[in-house]
Design brief:
mainly alpha; 0% strand; globular
Length: 298
């Protein structure tokens, strides 16, 4: 693995992450069905990639680790369901930008739950994200579909922040590929009661899109991300992944004519700038390493 190949891998992963909303738009099924199908195909893909890398996914886990994986898997299920609802209601760009607020939620939770002091630069980061979300909001009216979609996107970002903190605090020392596989397995089990009745009537085309979503936007993107980290540090990789909203907006514009307004573009610029700045902030090696599993489930 050369640095050039690692950079290529991480950029491909960012593009695949950006395509997630596209598949959410293409698949006509409910958010619950999309989440279930994505998880099933992701488990199959991750199993294949782990076999290619000769990494055991079913290694011995302690009861405490299993508990963490169950909780984080449930949070991942909530994150995906709310994200796909946001896509259905508000569109790809709004859903992705709502989700992109998660660094602000992480900063707030670290201060409130873990008593970590929030520095002035972090308050400024929160201000940038808030200003960006204000600009992205189509109308301050809960009857507006775009506003409702943004609210679901924010809920998606909130659940992802909780997932990130869960992984950071409890899943350190576990192999990221193993974490992702178990989390996706939990997602499938959690969503099965809510979506299994809809699977027999799912059109063949939706099955095709679900397979692409699970294999490429989840399994392959995860594999590329983890592989790139053999030559890139987590901060460098995170800066590239920060381009996900840009790719998502571009795909929505090109494929579905969901043209962003100048106001939305300005808001997106502020949010992406906040994400990049968050990644550029100085981190200690001990703080950066455990974040890897949390950064690979958009």
């Amino acid at each position: 693995m050369t640095r050039h190949r690692a950079l290529t891998y991480i950029h491909i992963a960012a593009v695949l992450f950006g395509l997630t909303g596209v598949f959410g738009e293409l698949i006509q099924a409910s958010a619950a069905v999309i989440t279930l199908g994505r998880a099933i195909f992701a488990v199959l893909a991750l199993g294949l990639f782990a076999r290619m890398r000769r990494k055991p996914l079913l290694g011995a886990l302690t009861p405490a680790q299993l508990f963490v994986l169950v909780v984080s898997g449930a949070l991942l299920a909530g994150h995906w369901v709310t994200f796909f609802i946001a896509v259905k209601v508000g569109g790809i760009a709004i859903a992705t930008l709502g989700f992109a607020s998660f660094p602000a939620f992480i900063t707030l939770f670290e201060g409130l739950l873990f008593r970590e002091r929030i520095r002035a630069t972090e308050w400024l980061l929160l201000g940038l994200v808030t200003a960006g979300l204000v600009l992205v909001t189509p109308a301050f009216n809960l009857a507006d579909q775009g506003t409702i979609g943004l609210a679901w996107g924010l809920l998606s970002g909130l659940s992802f922040a909780l997932l990130a903190l869960s992984n950071r605090r409890s899943a350190s020392g576990m192999d990221p590929m193993q974490v992702a596989c178990w989390q996706n397995l939990v997602v499938a089990l959690v969503m099965l009661p809510f979506a299994v009745s809809q699977l027999p009537v799912l059109p063949a085309l939706d099955w095709f899109w679900l397979a692409l979503l699970g294999i490429f936007c989840t399994g392959l993107s995860h594999y590329l991300f983890v592989s790139s980290l053999t030559r890139l540090n987590a901060r460098s990789a995170g800066l590239v992944i920060a381009l996900e909203p840009v790719y998502a907006i571009a795909f929505a514009w090109i494929l579905f004519s969901q043209q962003p307004t100048p106001r939305m573009m300005a808001g997106a610029a502020l949010i992406v700038a906040a994400i990049v700045w968050s990644g550029l902030r100085k981190q200690t090696p001990n703080a950066a390493a455990p974040e890897v599993p949390a950064k690979i489930q958009p």
